[in-house]
Amino acid sequence: MGRNTTKLATERHLAAILVADVVGYSRLMGADEDGTLRRLRALRSDLIDPTIQRYAGRFVKSTGDGVIAEFPSAVGAVRCALDLQRAMIDRNADIPEAQQLRFRIGLNVGETVVEPDGDIYGDSVNLAARLESIAPCGGVCFSRTVRDQVRDRIQLAFEDWGERPLKNIARPVRVFAVLPESIAALPEAGAPAPTPRTRLRFVVTAILVAIAVLAGGAWFALRPLAPPPQATATAPLPAARPDLAAELPPGQTLARLPPPHGCLRHPVSGRSPRQG
Fold first, then answer.
1. Exposed, middle or buried: residue 251 (CB in 10 Å: 0-12, 13-18, 19+)?
2. How far is CA 249 from the centre of its chain?
């Protein structure tokens, strides 16, 4: 009998899981089914899919009133979640509250099982879904594993909700939450994060400016001082020559004008002639 070489076409890998769900979906559909579906499709194409791609994530599937996505890092998943929630604040600004689309988002990191069709399963996915169910409207909940991976890499105000029992989860889970108020205080969604090259250019520019300032200060402090101005000796006026009058043409006379005030000093006393 031949050896069975058939293998399940599945794989396992570590991933950060994002689960998002529309708050009050049934009510919104009951009030305006066509309008709600139209706005959800627009959100998928204009906001959700591009934001997931921006952080190297993969859209896994739609759950009707929400989405599931996976990311190679917890940092990317958290930034995606914050951008989505921040963008929804802007989009809902001019919409009546009863018609607003708002999300809850849950995040977790763990091993996932990937099916051939791209769908994912596993305890990590279930935990992300349970965290989403207790997240505040317009906010984000995440596990301790996520917190440990992003705490020193993302400046984020979050609350520690302590150990929480979650449905169908064997042990209580340490839960952390980002409230809508903290998300509203974040910069506008979609603002490009500085790249390593941009940060390097900024650091180099700052160093060059600092060197120029220090060099200028050193030159100013060590420059040779100019010698004090030397007093310039003023030659005395020549004595009047009586014989010059005889050399003048007829009808002209010789007159001696006084010097400008303060210009000359007596060679002996140092006083001006007008001071006596």
1. exposed
2. 91
pLDDT in tens, 5-35: 445 567 899 999 999 999 999 999 999 999 9
- The domain 11-187 is placed in CATH, from the list 3.90.1150.10, 3.30.420.40, 1.10.10.10, 3.30.70.1230, at 3.30.70.1230
CA–CA distance from 160 to each of 57, 154, 164 (Å)?
A: 26, 16, 11
Q: CA-CA distance, 179 to 173, in Å (whole number)?
A: 19
Which amino acid is residue 221, in one-letter code? A
Phi/psi at 154 (5° precision)? -130, 125
Model confidence at 77: pLDDT above 90: yes
DSSP string, 208-225: HHHHHHHHHHHHHHHSPP
Q: Is the pLDDT of residue 63 over 70?
A: yes
Strands 103-114 and 58-62: unpaired
Quick check: 208 and 217 in contact, CB under 8 A?
no
Under a CB-based contact definition with an 8 Å cutoff, are residues 112 and 13 in contact? yes
A 10 A CB-CB count for 132 gives 24
Query: In degrees rounded to 5, what are phi and psi of residue 30?
Result: -65, -35
Q: Give Cα separations from 117 to 4, 9, 61, 114, 233 (angstroms).
A: 23, 10, 10, 8, 103
Record the tokens describing residue 44, joined without a space: 């998928």
Domain positions in the chain = 11-187
Place of tokens 């791609």: 53
DSSP 158: -
